[in-house]
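Q: Hi! First time doing this. I have a protein sequence and I read that you can turn it into a structure. Is that right? Here it is:
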Amino acid sequence: EVEVAIPPGTCWQVANFYRTMFQAQTDSNGAIATVNIGNDFQRLRFVENEAAAGNYRYAWSSDSFEDQFHVAMYINDFAGVYARMRDHAHARLWDNPRIGDNAHTLELAIQRQQFRFKDITDLRTGEVVMELEHEIRSREHPLCPLGRSEEAARHNAVFLGSDIPVFPP
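A: Yes, that's right. Below is the predicted 3D structure, encoded as C-alpha coordinates:
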Protein backbone atom coordinates (compact mmCIF):
# COMPACT_ATOMS: atom_id res chain seq x y z
CA GLU A 1 0.00 0.00 0.00
CA VAL A 2 1.25 3.45 -0.95
CA GLU A 3 -0.06 6.49 0.91
CA VAL A 4 -0.21 9.87 -0.82
CA ALA A 5 -1.23 13.22 0.67
CA ILE A 6 -3.87 15.09 -1.34
CA PRO A 7 -5.42 18.54 -0.91
CA PRO A 8 -8.40 18.82 1.45
CA GLY A 9 -11.78 18.27 -0.14
CA THR A 10 -10.53 16.14 -3.05
CA CYS A 11 -11.19 12.54 -1.95
CA TRP A 12 -14.30 12.14 -4.06
CA GLN A 13 -12.58 13.43 -7.23
CA VAL A 14 -9.60 11.10 -6.69
CA ALA A 15 -11.82 8.05 -6.10
CA ASN A 16 -13.96 8.94 -9.14
CA PHE A 17 -10.86 9.29 -11.32
CA TYR A 18 -9.62 5.76 -10.56
CA ARG A 19 -13.11 4.26 -10.62
CA THR A 20 -13.70 5.72 -14.10
CA MET A 21 -10.26 5.38 -15.71
CA PHE A 22 -9.19 2.05 -14.16
CA GLN A 23 -12.62 0.65 -13.31
CA ALA A 24 -10.99 0.10 -9.91
CA GLN A 25 -12.69 -0.64 -6.63
CA THR A 26 -12.59 2.55 -4.61
CA ASP A 27 -13.73 3.70 -1.22
CA SER A 28 -14.01 7.37 -0.36
CA ASN A 29 -14.94 8.00 3.22
CA GLY A 30 -14.31 11.29 4.91
CA ALA A 31 -10.78 12.44 4.22
CA ILE A 32 -9.42 9.12 2.87
CA ALA A 33 -9.81 7.57 -0.57
CA THR A 34 -8.63 3.99 -1.06
CA VAL A 35 -8.04 2.58 -4.54
CA ASN A 36 -7.57 -1.15 -5.17
CA ILE A 37 -5.92 -2.11 -8.44
CA GLY A 38 -5.91 -5.76 -9.49
CA ASN A 39 -7.67 -7.74 -6.78
CA ASP A 40 -6.02 -5.89 -3.89
CA PHE A 41 -2.50 -6.65 -5.11
CA GLN A 42 -1.86 -2.94 -5.44
CA ARG A 43 -3.47 -0.36 -3.20
CA LEU A 44 -3.21 3.41 -3.16
CA ARG A 45 -4.41 5.31 -0.11
CA PHE A 46 -5.00 9.03 -0.58
CA VAL A 47 -5.26 11.07 2.63
CA GLU A 48 -6.40 14.67 2.66
CA ASN A 49 -3.77 16.87 4.25
CA GLU A 50 -3.24 20.65 4.40
CA ALA A 51 0.42 20.10 3.51
CA ALA A 52 -0.58 18.83 0.03
CA ALA A 53 -0.73 22.26 -1.54
CA GLY A 54 1.49 24.63 -3.50
CA ASN A 55 4.57 23.08 -5.02
CA TYR A 56 3.76 19.69 -3.52
CA ARG A 57 0.41 19.57 -5.32
CA TYR A 58 1.97 20.67 -8.62
CA ALA A 59 5.42 19.14 -8.24
CA TRP A 60 5.89 18.45 -11.95
CA SER A 61 4.50 21.70 -13.37
CA SER A 62 6.46 23.84 -10.95
CA ASP A 63 9.51 21.64 -11.60
CA SER A 64 10.24 22.05 -7.93
CA PHE A 65 11.66 18.54 -7.54
CA GLU A 66 9.64 18.55 -4.36
CA ASP A 67 8.40 14.98 -3.97
CA GLN A 68 8.54 14.10 -7.66
CA PHE A 69 8.09 10.44 -6.87
CA HIS A 70 6.03 8.19 -9.08
CA VAL A 71 4.01 5.01 -8.76
CA ALA A 72 4.24 1.99 -11.04
CA MET A 73 1.14 -0.16 -11.42
CA TYR A 74 0.68 -3.44 -13.25
CA ILE A 75 -2.75 -3.90 -14.79
CA ASN A 76 -4.66 -6.48 -16.83
CA ASP A 77 -6.87 -4.01 -18.75
CA PHE A 78 -3.89 -2.20 -20.26
CA ALA A 79 -5.46 -1.25 -23.62
CA GLY A 80 -8.76 -0.33 -21.95
CA VAL A 81 -7.16 2.05 -19.45
CA TYR A 82 -5.03 3.60 -22.21
CA ALA A 83 -8.14 4.14 -24.37
CA ARG A 84 -10.15 5.65 -21.51
CA MET A 85 -7.26 8.01 -20.66
CA ARG A 86 -6.81 8.96 -24.33
CA ASP A 87 -10.51 9.47 -25.06
CA HIS A 88 -11.76 11.27 -21.94
CA ALA A 89 -11.97 15.05 -22.34
CA HIS A 90 -10.50 15.65 -18.87
CA ALA A 91 -7.84 12.93 -18.63
CA ARG A 92 -4.33 13.32 -20.02
CA LEU A 93 -1.69 10.82 -21.09
CA TRP A 94 1.83 12.12 -20.53
CA ASP A 95 5.33 11.35 -21.72
CA ASN A 96 7.96 12.19 -19.12
CA PRO A 97 10.62 14.14 -21.04
CA ARG A 98 13.32 12.95 -18.64
CA ILE A 99 12.65 9.27 -19.41
CA GLY A 100 11.96 9.30 -23.15
CA ASP A 101 9.77 6.18 -23.26
CA ASN A 102 7.06 7.95 -25.24
CA ALA A 103 3.79 6.18 -25.91
CA HIS A 104 1.90 8.60 -28.17
CA THR A 105 -0.23 5.77 -29.56
CA LEU A 106 -1.75 2.59 -28.22
CA GLU A 107 0.54 0.65 -30.56
CA LEU A 108 3.65 2.23 -28.99
CA ALA A 109 2.27 1.66 -25.50
CA ILE A 110 1.67 -2.02 -26.28
CA GLN A 111 5.13 -2.33 -27.83
CA ARG A 112 6.71 -0.84 -24.69
CA GLN A 113 4.12 -2.47 -22.42
CA GLN A 114 3.80 0.79 -20.51
CA PHE A 115 2.53 4.36 -20.67
CA ARG A 116 2.43 7.29 -18.27
CA PHE A 117 0.18 10.02 -16.97
CA LYS A 118 0.78 12.57 -14.23
CA ASP A 119 -2.49 14.40 -13.60
CA ILE A 120 -5.23 13.08 -11.35
CA THR A 121 -8.08 15.29 -12.51
CA ASP A 122 -11.62 16.10 -11.56
CA LEU A 123 -13.24 14.31 -14.49
CA ARG A 124 -16.21 16.69 -14.40
CA THR A 125 -14.18 19.90 -14.80
CA GLY A 126 -10.65 18.96 -15.87
CA GLU A 127 -9.13 20.68 -12.84
CA VAL A 128 -5.88 19.04 -11.75
CA VAL A 129 -6.42 17.65 -8.26
CA MET A 130 -2.88 16.33 -7.84
CA GLU A 131 0.18 15.72 -9.97
CA LEU A 132 1.52 12.24 -9.40
CA GLU A 133 3.37 10.46 -12.17
CA HIS A 134 1.92 7.03 -12.88
CA GLU A 135 3.87 4.44 -14.82
CA ILE A 136 1.19 2.04 -16.03
CA ARG A 137 2.52 -1.33 -17.08
CA SER A 138 0.96 -4.38 -18.61
CA ARG A 139 0.97 -7.55 -16.52
CA GLU A 140 3.09 -8.91 -19.41
CA HIS A 141 5.83 -6.34 -18.75
CA PRO A 142 9.14 -8.17 -18.16
CA LEU A 143 9.59 -6.46 -14.78
CA CYS A 144 6.12 -7.33 -13.47
CA PRO A 145 6.63 -9.13 -10.16
CA LEU A 146 2.98 -10.18 -9.78
CA GLY A 147 2.39 -13.88 -10.14
CA ARG A 148 6.11 -14.64 -10.38
CA SER A 149 8.43 -16.23 -7.93
CA GLU A 150 10.70 -13.93 -5.94
CA GLU A 151 13.66 -15.46 -7.76
CA ALA A 152 12.17 -14.66 -11.19
CA ALA A 153 11.23 -11.12 -10.16
CA ARG A 154 14.72 -10.45 -8.79
CA HIS A 155 16.33 -11.94 -11.93
CA ASN A 156 14.40 -9.54 -14.22
CA ALA A 157 14.98 -6.37 -12.16
CA VAL A 158 17.22 -3.86 -13.97
CA PHE A 159 18.02 -0.21 -13.37
CA LEU A 160 15.85 2.20 -15.37
CA GLY A 161 17.12 2.76 -18.89
CA SER A 162 19.79 0.08 -18.70
CA ASP A 163 20.45 -3.64 -18.71
CA ILE A 164 22.34 -3.42 -15.41
CA PRO A 165 20.77 -5.84 -12.92
CA VAL A 166 19.56 -4.49 -9.60
CA PHE A 167 20.50 -7.77 -7.96
CA PRO A 168 23.76 -9.03 -9.54
CA PRO A 169 24.14 -12.81 -9.77
